[in-house]
Specification:
The protein is of the alpha/beta class. Helix content is about 20%, strand content about 40%. Bound molecules: zinc ion. The site of zinc ion has 3 residues, from strand 11.
């Protein structure tokens, strides 16, 4: 087949998949977002995080820096720091991770950390005792306003997502977040990724709930 024909077929398939209210899924491993104060404590005053890899959401990136999370029962090593720095530190882990740490952690929307437990973060011999901010991130979809229009959903809406994989399932209670600064992707953690047989490129179809 010639290149042009292949491209037109690929474009048609992409368009049909989009028309089917499908979004690409990404799995997020455990990670930390750090405030300026936290970076100063863990890496030294005025330290600048080192960008290692751009993430799908514009302006967000994985850093070279790694930290250790310490709980009463155990530690999690080699936890990636995501940039840029944030107003408040936040640590996102899976429910399996919380068992390793020995801390009871609620499922929360990113940023809603009032009343959440803290955790000890270590970098070498530097120790930060975070008072709050340890969460299991609620599964969510980042969406552009254009896609929200196309999919007939709005910011804050809760939907179901049917995952197409070799271990298909339907996720309930999926929060849609619409923002012009987003790219459209669904985010799940590793527990959820394993539960649905996630592989890179796995797609999910949005199922709208009756109000
Ligand atoms: Zn996300």
């Amino acid at each position: 087949m010639n290149q042009q024909l292949v491209e037109s077929i690929v474009n048609e398939v992409v368009k049909r998949v989009q028309d089917e209210k499908c979004v690409e899924i990404e799995a997020s491993g455990k990670h930390v977002h750090l405030s300026r104060e936290a970076i100063d404590t863990l890496f030294g005053k005025g330290y600048q995080l080192t960008k290692a890899k751009e993430l799908s959401q514009p302006g967000q990136y994985a850093c070279k820096e790694r930290v250790t999370l310490i709980g009463p029962k155990g530690s999690l090593h080699n936890v990636v720091v995501l940039g840029p720095e944030r107003k408040e530190s936040q640590v996102e882990v899976s429910l399996t991770d919380t068992l390793s740490l020995g801390i009871k952690v609620p499922v929360r929307e990113s940023g809603k950390i009032e009343g959440t437990p803290g955790v000890i973060i270590a970098s070498g011999s530097n120790i930060l005792r975070l008072e709050k901010g340890l969460i299991v991130a609620k599964r969510h979809i980042h969406m552009t306003p254009d896609d929200a229009k196309k999919f007939y959903v709005e910011n804050g809406e809760v939907v179901q997502v049917k995952v197409f994989s070799n271990r298909p399932l339907i996720f309930d209670d999926v929060l849609v977040r619409v923002n012009p600064s987003y790219q459209t992707y669904m985010h799940i953690d590793y527990d959820e990724a394993n539960a649905c047989g996630f592989a890179k490129g796995t797609m999910g179809k949005i199922i709208k709930l009756c109000k």
